[in-house]
Amino acid sequence: MELSAVSETALWTLYQRSVEARRPDPLLEDPKAVELVERIDYPFAERFGTSDFQAQLQALRVACFDREVAGFLAREPRGTVVCLGEGLETQFWRVDNGRAQWLTVDLPESVSLREKLLPPGPRQRYLAADATDLAWADEVDRDRGVLVTAQGLCMYLRPPQVRALISGCADRFPGGSLVLDAVPRWFGRLTLRGSLRTHGYQAPPMPWAMDADEQAKLRTASPAVSAVRDVRPTGGRGLVGALLPLALVLPPLATRRPSVTVLEFAERPDRS
Ligand SMILES: C[S@@+](CC[C@H](N)C(=O)[O-])C[C@H]1O[C@@H](n2cnc3c(N)ncnc32)[C@H](O)[C@@H]1O
């Protein structure tokens, strides 16, 4: 399997979910991820190493997105969930309600892999497109509520692209929302220097990074962003579980941690 460095990151996140889901006490139930890792001919463990800590952190992040999507589906059972940069995410199989519409937008090589491994069902559509070109928005059914997710995507974009993505979504989906995650600045700097290595795997450069105390700044991307909300991880196992509540409130970790943010869009963008 030949994949570019950024598309290969979807295998990394898939593998972390599968490692967590294989545990007897998982934070994330994800049998589809376990099944996929068993089916794909790829040296996951050799390439990425296996770290329970890493898998747990990944599961905590994923659970934040699942919670937001499940909350949206509870409010808008027939709404549309748009997953930008979805890679091999198996969220549909974790939180689908049997009635919603799902649209995946990812780069052509990732979509072709997803089509082979996770063929779309009747309420799922896969679109091979660059998420930063807002043309995909024309494909979205806006009649019954829209939630856009960008899980593990924005860090690979340039800062002006992230702002344009936020303002483009805010303009096109009044009353909708966008959930995105960010790595902290120190982490982004390590990737730009090429010094973020685990078990011989080098993470690709992450040009966009944001500290957790900068979330409110995202509002400046568009006057149509009406609210910004931090989605905090909950639960956790062992030492992580014990320290998480403190890490979320005590500096420096509280501000220099990865974050998940919800941006809500005004019903009618204020253009005054
Ligand atoms: C770290 S993976 C995340 C995959 C999935 N969301 C998850 O959390 O497991 C990054 C994904 O973003 C996709 N991606 C990167 N740049 C993109 C772009 N400009 N437009 C659409 N997808 C992009 C990659 O192909 C890859 O599938």
Provide a descriptive summary of the structure in words:
This protein has 272 residues and is α/β, with parallel strands linked by helices. It has a single domain, classed as Vaccinia Virus protein VP39 (Rossmann fold, 3-Layer(aba) Sandwich). The chain contains 9 helices and 9 strands. The strands form 2 sheets. The protein has a 7-stranded mixed beta sheet. A two-stranded antiparallel ribbon has the order 6-7. The termini are far apart. The structure holds S-adenosylmethionine. The site of S-adenosylmethionine (SAM) has 21 residues, from α1 and β2. This is Class I SAM-dependent methyltransferase.
Topology of this structure?
Layout: H1 5-21, H2 31-39, H3 44-48, H4 52-75, E1 80-84, H5 91-95, E2 101-106, H6 108-117, E3 124-128, E4 146-150, H7 159-172, E5 177-182, H8 185-193, E6 197-198, E7 201-202, E8 225-231, H9 238-247, E9 259-265
Parallel strand pairs: 1-2, 1-4, 2-3, 4-5
Antiparallel strand pairs: 5-9, 6-7, 8-9
Helix pairs in contact: 1-2, 1-4
This protein binds S-adenosylmethionine.
Which labels suit this protein?
single chain; 272 residues; alpha/beta; Rossmann fold; seven-stranded mixed sheet; two-stranded antiparallel sheet; 9 helices; globular; binds S-adenosylmethionine; SAM-dependent_MTases_sf; methyltransferase; transferase; Class I SAM-dependent methyltransferase
The number of distinct β-strands equals 9
Termini distance?
A: 51 Å
Radius of gyration: 18 Å
Largest beta sheet: what is the strand line-up? 3-2-1-4-5-9-8
Secondary structural class? alpha/beta
- CATH architectural designation: 3-Layer(aba) Sandwich
Shape call: globular
SSE run: HHHHEHEHEEHEHEEEHE
At CATH level 3, the topology is: Rossmann fold
Provide the β-strand percentage band. 15-25%
User: What's the number of structural domains?
Assistant: 1
CATH superfamily: Vaccinia Virus protein VP39
Q: Biggest β-sheet, characterized?
A: 7 strands, mixed
| Count of alpha and pi helical runs | 9
Mean residue pLDDT:
95
Bound compounds:
S-adenosylmethionine
* Helical residue percent band: 25-40%
Write down the CATH class. Alpha Beta
Could you list the spans in which at least 5 consecutive residues all have pLDDT below 50? Answer: none
InterPro entries: Ppm1/Ppm2/Tcmp (IPR007213), SAM-dependent_MTases_sf (IPR029063), TcmP-like (IPR016874)
Pfam families: LCM
GO molecular function: methyltransferase activity
Keywords: Methyltransferase, Transferase
